[in-house]
User: Which sequence fits this backbone?
């Protein structure tokens, strides 16, 4: 794998190495310099534009070349779709799950080899910039026209120019779910997560981006801010929320179903899934789109650079793009898929619940989570750690 | 120190005893494979943790070795201190609760279990062989606001319901539930080993069974209790599952902090530093523990 | 001490031994680091004899036994077993078997399995093993317990299983390491008799290690008294009891009244000034320091015979033992003798002495043992 | 032995001093407290079993009996492969830890040199190290060496963690076995190895069984180490359970839990029964509990 930025790489590595071995002796020398997972060629920047041209790898062909090593959220696919793939192509699916995007990144960085992974948009960019994923040859996908070529936004999304490296999957907003039978004083603002009525029954998603983004919107700041003053305000705001909170949790459906949550920062699709499949009485539940604005995000399938079976991965992605599978997944997941007809299917599902409507126009607006420089990422992580730890 | 540790640890564990040495070369060779294994996979891995705790995160967001003290400086922060103190408070509370719960149970089984003793110990152990996660999950659904317990309370007339979950109490309860068996077994073992003639003698001497209990039984089982303290305190201090499944917004423990650095914040060097601090804290505990057991050994 | 060693030297003694010994130890030495546990030991044990190594704990007797068995390597010296040098032969190849102090039975095997263990290792065929095991169980009186597990047996039964397990292999020599120490007194006495009978019956050389002088005296053909890694004296039980050759031997076997002083002209003068006549020892040099030992039962307190040595004393304590009474008699400042008197039918109660009585002690000159 | 004595003693006091005891009330307190303890211990277990038969997809409302979650479990290839992976990890780790732990125990019982004591101490450290530390260390070690995380790394980590348990249990048994027993075997014609094979190992067999079962159960259920060291192979069951209960409602997990419970009941029952087959009156449980 070649890299246009690789010229500066050796010096960095050697300096790391010397530092390590001088200071720490055998153990450091043993593990080499930059520690493991310092994958093939570190890119110099993680600039949000993603303009640094990644490597050109020989694109794989859509031919079954082994079992599918599949890495996704738990149950984030319609079961019969997965079953159908196994039956039709006679392969096994080796499934592993992650429970946060950073967790996913950690597992990929530690050298684990997967065939297909479903990262969130900003992680697609990060993986692309770090040369951890491979180019997807659209010509190999018979159903590529479902996502591309009809004037779709995803012909050239913000996180992956020309969608060279990814196939878009779903999109979602982050809003607030609440119980109408318990709470009568909602104002349609993020401030509702500080609601007195709901004190002790309010949940915030256990994700740095979502929590910081929510506070930023409430304070009128950029959801991606890394400005120290902004972060200080956000931190104070989030800490002021603690007395109202029941917990930070991404186990949203359980929290809603168990009756512990009266107000819950919530992903649109999980809410739909919950009221369609789990809620005892769907009518008492409402999803609101806060007036300060909602983060809109999407995810996309990628094939890691070190995928053992890229051929099978391509066959799988093509299979997912079949119109019938797109519809099955939308209905099961409750998220609109980023493909032809996806929006219409979704619109039918959310009839009468306008707050769940998602406008594709918002997919690259300011309320999308972006990548940061390592220093900025660290600053945001520190705020989040300190909020949770306090 | 090292042999003290060995003896002290050995003393807390079942059936451990010192023994004379019959030397044969065979035994020396037998030592090689396990020794090599422990050095390669345990000692060196701990050394890597220590080494990485002085490392940095490079421009790529990846960990790199270094000689920086920055991670330790970052820990000099009231936030981390809060988490540390909180973890200590939770673990100590857990140990104390386990002691008060475990002692009567061990006592009842050991001295009043009769022929059901083995069956009772089996009944005690079985749940701990079934998935810890599933049991914790069962508790969390049982105790949720509209879970079975609150439904039951509702039918009895508590219309408001009680919030059990997502509180520090729930975290400690989870820890107690998870580790109490490690307190019961050593106490049970020491009660089993105790000479019951002591109790008889004590009854003659003190007349009151309660006074006998405190004057005879408790001191005789101190080794078991100390062993239990060790076996409960250590895992409790490093746990992160209980706080994650049962905790609230302010129940973060060191274990959660470490896990977060490794799997969310992508800051392995800081996570390593936290791990080293945790190990040091345990070392301090071990020193005090050893003093206590030595004092105990002198007294008996 | 070197005297003793020389006397036991098989090379010097070789002519005296008509038969080849079962065991010959030559300059056998064992050191653990700086500590010498067995010190240039020379010893012959004859075929078919019941030989005891007697000594206090830590004297090196068990170490000697372990070297003979092969569990412990000799630092120096040679072990000859039935004419063959076995010094560096592994234990499983030596034709000796051991009865251990702890019995060391195999818990996972029943009595039959335990007893037949050695035979199975030798690869004998099953019926032969069965026959010999049964025979041996008959001998040790355990025929009915062949299928019992060791933990179901009493101490005495375990002891007999251990004995049978060793004997069934028909070893040249059977080594017994304090095998009776763990038994209670009554059982111990019974087992002493049984062991001796079994030894007579099978005719195998027994080397018996014990710290119990009674045991050694009643069972052995010969006894070696060990101390600090050296053999102080060896000989028949009567020999070592009646004629102890060293102070240690005199003190260790039975009770002895030991007195040390200056010899001149058939009189021994103690430090306290007491003079004791010491007739009949012309070999003693004038002015030499001499120790004498007299057994308590050899001292009379009345009805003296002519020719006895007699000295006065004061009874300081009496201990009634039933068949005997023990008196402690002060004969000079700091010199207290122990006297053992039979409580015979003819002696009346009133005749006995009480504390503070002035008495006269007497003994026959030939009962005085002079130690170098 | 001691156990029987205590039991008899307890019985006698019970009959002779009933009146006095009821006045003071302590044993009644202890017994009642123990009963309550066992109820609480088993409440979640009962819930798991009950809801594994729930006809509804709910963990708080019981809608009638159904075997749908078992059907789902047995048709869920992911859960199945995780179950197989966990069984494999536990079996291999059990064998490996037994082998190394027994070697360690035998050596430590007999060699008292300084390096041996050092090894002995080090081998006990994992017992007193929180799992998260061991997990972090294993993760950094494997990734640092550039080893791919896989079931193999999980197994290595689990063996490292389990050796000390085996060593402690086996040493306990060995130390109560007189060293003369092995000498007796050699005396009766065994080489050192044969003595080990024909005498020592059969003698400590109950301890080996107890240690093996304990390690199997601990490893099978272990989450933390597996979480840190697992790769892309089928995830160990505990890790899959963790990601499922964090993100979805899946009563199939209760079916899994019920099956695991059934297996562990079987294992514990075996550990009670097997030593009897070896003709010993005490059970492996005594060893686990140190009795």
Assistant:
């Amino acid at each position: 794998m070649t890299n246009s930025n690789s010229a500066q790489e050796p010096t960095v590595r050697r300096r790391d190495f010397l530092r390590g071995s001088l200071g720490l002796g055998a153990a450091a020398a043993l593990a080499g310099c930059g520690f493991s997972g310092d994958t093939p060629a570190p890119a110099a920047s993680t600039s949000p534009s993603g303009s640094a041209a990644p490597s050109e790898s020989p694109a794989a062909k859509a031919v079954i070349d082994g079992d599918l090593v599949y890495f996704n959220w738990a149950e984030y696919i319609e079961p019969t779709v997965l079953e159908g793939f196994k039956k039709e192509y006679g392969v096994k699916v080796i499934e592993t799950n992650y429970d946060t995007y950073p967790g996913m990144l950690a597992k990929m960085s530690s050298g684990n080899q997967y065939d297909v992974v479903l990262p969130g948009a900003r992680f697609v960019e990060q993986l692309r910039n770090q040369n951890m994923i491979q180019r997807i040859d659209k010509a190999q996908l018979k159903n590529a026209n479902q996502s591309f070529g009809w004037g779709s936004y995803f012909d050239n999304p913000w996180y992956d120019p020309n969608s060279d490296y990814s196939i878009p999957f779903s999109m979602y907003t982050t809003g607030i779910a609440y119980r109408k039978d318990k709470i009568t004083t909602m104002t349609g603002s993020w401030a509702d997560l500080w609601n007195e009525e709901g004190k002790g029954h309010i949940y915030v998603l256990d994700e740095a981006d979502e929590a910081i983004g929510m506070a930023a919107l409430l304070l009128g700041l950029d959801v991606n801010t890394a400005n120290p003053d902004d972060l200080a305000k956000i931190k104070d705001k989030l800490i002021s929320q603690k007395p109202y909170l029941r917990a930070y949790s991404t186990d949203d459906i359980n929290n809603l179903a168990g009756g512990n949550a009266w107000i819950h920062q919530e992903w649109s699709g999980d809410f739909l899934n919950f009221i369609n499949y789990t809620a005892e009485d769907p009518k008492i539940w409402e999803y609101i789109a806060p007036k300060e604005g909602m983060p809109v995000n999407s995810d996309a399938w990628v094939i890691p650079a070190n995928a053992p079976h890229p051929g099978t991965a391509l066959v799988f992605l093509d299979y997912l793009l079949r119109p019938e599978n797109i519809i099955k997944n939308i209905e099961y997941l409750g998220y609109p898929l980023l493909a032809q007809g996806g929006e219409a299917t979704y619109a039918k599902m959310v009839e009468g619940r306008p707050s769940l409507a998602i406008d594709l126009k918002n997919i690259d607006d300011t309320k999308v989570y972006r990548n940061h420089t390592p220093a900025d990422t660290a600053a945001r992580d520190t705020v989040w750690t300190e909020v949770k730890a306090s | 120190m090292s042999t003290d540790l060995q003896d002290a640890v050995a003393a807390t564990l079942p059936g451990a005893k010192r023994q004379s040495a019959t030397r044969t070369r065979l035994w020396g060779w037998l030592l090689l494979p396990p020794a090599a294994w422990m050095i390669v996979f345990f000692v060196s891995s701990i050394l890597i943790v220590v080494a990485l705790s002085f490392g940095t995160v490079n421009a790529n967001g990846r960990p790199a070795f270094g000689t920086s003290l920055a991670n330790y400086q970052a820990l000099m922060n009231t936030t981390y201190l809060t988490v540390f103190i909180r973890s200590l408070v939770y673990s100590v509370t857990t140990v104390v609760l386990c002691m008060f719960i475990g002692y009567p149970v061990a006592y009842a089984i050991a001295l009043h279990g009769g022929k059901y003793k083995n069956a009772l110990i089996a009944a005690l152990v079985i749940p701990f062989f079934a998935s810890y996660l599933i049991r914790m999950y069962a508790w969390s659904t049982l105790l949720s606001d509209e879970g079975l317990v609150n439904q039951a309370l509702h039918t009895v007339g508590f219309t408001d319901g009680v919030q059990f979950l997502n509180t520090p109490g729930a975290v400690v309860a989870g820890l107690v539930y998870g580790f109490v068996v490690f307190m019961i077994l050593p106490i049970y073992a020491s009660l089993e080993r105790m000479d019951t003639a002591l109790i008889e003698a004590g009854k003659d001497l003190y007349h009151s069974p309660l006074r006998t209990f405190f004057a005879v039984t408790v001191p005789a089982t101190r080794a078991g209790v100390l062993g239990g303290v060790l076996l409960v305190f250590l895992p409790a201090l490093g746990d992160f599952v209980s706080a994650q499944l049962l905790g609230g917004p302010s129940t973060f423990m060191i274990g959660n902090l470490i896990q977060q650095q490794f799997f969310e914040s992508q800051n392995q060097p800081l996570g390593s530093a936290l791990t080293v601090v945790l190990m040091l804290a345990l070392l301090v505990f071990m020193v005090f523990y050893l003093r206590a057991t030595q004092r105990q050994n002198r007294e008996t | 001490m070197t005297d003793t060693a020389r006397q036991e030297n098989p090379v010097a003694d070789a002519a005296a031994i008509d038969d080849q010994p079962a065991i010959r130890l030559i300059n056998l030495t064992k050191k653990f680091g700086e500590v010498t546990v067995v010190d240039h030991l020379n010893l012959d044990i004859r075929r078919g004899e019941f030989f005891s190594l007697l000594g206090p704990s830590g004297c090196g007797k068990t170490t000697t036994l372990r070297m003979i068995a092969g569990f412990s390597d000799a630092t120096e010296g040679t072990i000859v077993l039935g004419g063959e040098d076995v010094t560096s032969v592994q234990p499983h190849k030596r034709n000796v078997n051991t009865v251990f102090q702890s019995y060391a039975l195999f818990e996972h095997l029943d009595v039959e399995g335990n007893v037949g263990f050695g035979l199975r290792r030798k690869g004998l065929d099953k019926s032969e093993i069965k026959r010999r095991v049964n025979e041996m169980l008959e001998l040790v009186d355990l025929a009915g317990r062949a299928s019992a597990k060791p933990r179901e047996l009493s101490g005495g039964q375990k002891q007999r299983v251990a004995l049978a397990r060793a004997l069934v292999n028909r070893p040249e020599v059977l080594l017994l390491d304090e095998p009776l120490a763990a038994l209670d007194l009554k059982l111990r006495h019974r087992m002493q008799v049984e062991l001796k009978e079994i030894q007579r019956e099978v005719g195998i050389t027994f080397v018996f290690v014990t710290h119990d002088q009674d045991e050694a005296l009643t069972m052995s053909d010969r006894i070696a008294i060990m101390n600090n890694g050296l053999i102080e004296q060896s000989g028949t039980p009567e020999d070592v009891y009646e004629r102890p050759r060293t102070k240690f031997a005199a003190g260790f076997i039975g009770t002895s009244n030991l007195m040390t002083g200056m010899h001149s002209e058939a009189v021994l003068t103690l430090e306290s000034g007491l003079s004791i006549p010491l007739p009949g020892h012309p070999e003693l040099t004038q002015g030499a320091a001499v120790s004498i030992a007299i057994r308590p039962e050899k001292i009379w307190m009345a009805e003296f015979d002519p020719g006895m040595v007699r000295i006065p004393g004061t009874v300081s304590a009496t201990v009634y033992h039933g068949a005997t009474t023990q008196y402690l008699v002060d004969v000079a400042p700091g010199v207290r003798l122990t006297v053992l008197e039979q409580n015979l039918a003819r002696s009346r109660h009133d005749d006995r002495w009480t504390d503070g009585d002035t008495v006269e002690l007497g003994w026959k000159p030939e009962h005085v043992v002079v130690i170098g | 032995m001691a156990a029987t004595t205590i039991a008899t003693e307890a019985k006698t006091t019970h009959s002779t001093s009933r009146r006095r005891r009821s006045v003071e009330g302590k044993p009644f307190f202890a017994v009642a407290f123990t009963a309550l303890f066992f109820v609480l211990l088993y409440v979640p277990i009962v819930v798991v079993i009950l809801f594994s038969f729930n006809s509804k997809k709910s963990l708080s409302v019981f809608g009638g009996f159904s075997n749908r979650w078992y059907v789902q479990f047995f048709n869920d290839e992911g859960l199945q492969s995780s179950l197989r992976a966990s069984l494999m990890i536990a079996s291999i780790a059990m064998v490996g830890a037994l082998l190394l732990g027994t070697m360690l125990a035998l050596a430590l019982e007999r060699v008292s040199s300084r390096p041996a004591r050092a090894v002995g101490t080090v081998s006990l450290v994992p017992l007193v190290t929180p799992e998260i530390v061991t997990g972090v260390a294993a993760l950094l070690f494997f990734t640092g060496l550039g080893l791919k995380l896989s079931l193999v790394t999980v197994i290595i980590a689990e063996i490292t963690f389990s050796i000390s348990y085996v060593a402690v249990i086996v040493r306990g048994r060995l130390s109560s076995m007189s060293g003369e027993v092995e000498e007796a075997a050699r005396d009766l014609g065994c080489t050192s190895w044969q003595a080990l094979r024909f005498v020592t190992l059969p003698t400590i067999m109950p301890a080996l069984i107890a240690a093996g079962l304990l390690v199997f159960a601990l490893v099978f259920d272990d989450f933390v180490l597996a979480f840190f060291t697992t790769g892309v192979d089928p995830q160990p069951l505990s890790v899959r359970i963790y990601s499922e209960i964090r993100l979805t409602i899946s009563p199939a997990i209760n079916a899994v839990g019920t099956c695991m419970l059934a297996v562990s009941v079987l294992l514990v029952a075996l550990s009670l029964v097997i030593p009897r087959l070896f003709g010993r009156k005490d059970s492996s449980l005594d060893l686990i509990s140190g009795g």
